[in-house]
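Hi everyone, sorry if this is the wrong subforum. Our group has a chain we'd like a structural model of before ordering constructs, and none of us has done structure prediction before. Sequence below.
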Amino acid sequence: MTSPALSYPEGSAAFPHESLVGIGGLAPHEILFLLDEAEQWVELNRHPQKHDDRLTGLTIINAFFENSTRTLLSFEIAGKRLGADVVNMHVAQSSIKKGETLIDTAMTLNAMHADAIVIRHGSSGAVQLIADKVDCPVLNAGDGQHEHPTQALLDALTIRHALRNKTGGSFNGLTVTLCGDILHSRVARSNILCLTSLGAHVRICAPPALIPADIEAMQAEVFHDFDAALDGADVVMMLRLQLERMQGQFIPSAREYRHLFGLTAERLARARPDALVMHPGPMNRGVEIDSDVADLADRSHITRQVEMGVAIRMACLDVLTRKVRRVEGWT
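Answer:
Right subforum, don't worry. Here is the predicted structure as tokens:
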């Protein structure tokens, strides 16, 4: 599926960036280009034979300085389905634990002549720092409270797939409500940047202590009343409380938080009758979302997000390594 009446610049000009560090700075047509590129991989991944050899001979390093299950596994599967050699670097085994600086680690990775590096790090800006020091494409798999671009792209692809009969693939006029720990969420930041760029109206809802000070500059509408934020929404995306990033008391208790900001079946009824339910995971069932909502047939697209994640990451790896393959004469 391609976007209606949308044309891209020819060749590499369609996506001229050497790395994918964030959604910020991407033009709307560049975001849509990546979504369109992912469509072929959505179809491939649904077939018994899920393999393409276009990245054969390339080496991809997944350097994860933070724990991850979905994102790491998704990038690993994406690279292997494209034929690449994929190496996972685990923090517990890395020299970072022995006192090595991030720049020294970047130089070490660069000396190994990887063809692409996927990085997750707990510090905002760490991925850009590494990208500035290496000679290959770098993909941001989440850095601190900054961005998580492939998550926003897979969420956009999920929305477009689910609502394409209703919207024709357009995001214009869609109302998307994000509720949860907005302050600490790189997923929220990337989603706001992505969805507003594509023409959607984004509402965010959280306790005042979990709303970033500069959020209105990102063109999101702020709510503290979850019921009001849900009114007429086309998409409801729930976010977990990131307790590991909190220093201090941000909420009275999990029980009180669920009472005010948990997505229940009764609350979901305030959104549109066909509103999508989404969550980037991991879910805290019974806190930000009830199980009967998370598992709601035909409405919950949480597992579909995981499916779209592999396709998006295949597209990003393919697009960002095309320059390498052209230099080598492979494409």
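For your construct planning: Strands lie at 59-64, 85-90, 116-121, 138-143, 175-179, 201-205, 221-223, 235-238, 276-278. The chain has twelve helices and nine strands.
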